[in-house]
Write a structure and sequence with these properties.
- This protein is α+β, with helices and mostly antiparallel strands and 133 residues long.
- It has one domain.
- It is 26% helix and 29% strand.
- It contains 3 helices and 7 strands, in the order βαβββαβαββ.
- The protein starts with a strand and ends with a strand.
Length: 133
């Protein structure tokens, strides 16, 4: 299971919206293979060098998106990040689009939650909110 502090998730979503407004929309997570698909407010769950959420607003040339590493899979603070990545997201790199409206509705329905969590099974990805002390 991967977890992300809800306050930081909100910041990533807000940054994507700000970038999109300033730069003409949202980036395509499908490497241009599906033009228009998922070019809406959202966040990307990225499995790469660690696992992180990334803002999806278009960026000016040379700018970098906002990134939020999973508490359990941050290569800057967890020497075992690659094992965590392989056991949760898998060995390949990839991007999964998460709709901002759905994520925000889940956060609003769980006002006491502190973390957005993502768990993987062989066939599904489950997203839920938890409250941590």
């Amino acid at each position: 299971m991967l977890s992300f502090p809800i306050a930081s998730v909100r910041e990533v979503i807000a940054r994507g919206l700000t970038d999109a407004q300033a730069n003409g929309g949202f980036r395509n997570p499908h490497y241009g293979l599906q033009p228009g698909k998922d070019e809406t407010p959202g966040i990307w769950l990225v499995g790469d060098h660690g696992i992180y959420l990334m803002s999806n607003g278009k960026l000016p040339e040379g700018a970098r998106p906002m990134v939020l590493y999973a508490d359990e899979c941050d290569p800057r603070s967890n020497d075992d990040w690659f094992t965590v990545k392989r056991s949760t997201y898998g060995g390949d790199d990839g991007i999964d689009f998460l709709d901002a409206e759905q994520i925000e509705a889940m956060m609003a329905a769980s006002p006491d939650a502190t973390h957005l969590c993502i768990a993987f099974t062989p066939d599904t990805m489950q997203i839920f909110m938890v409250e941590r002390p």
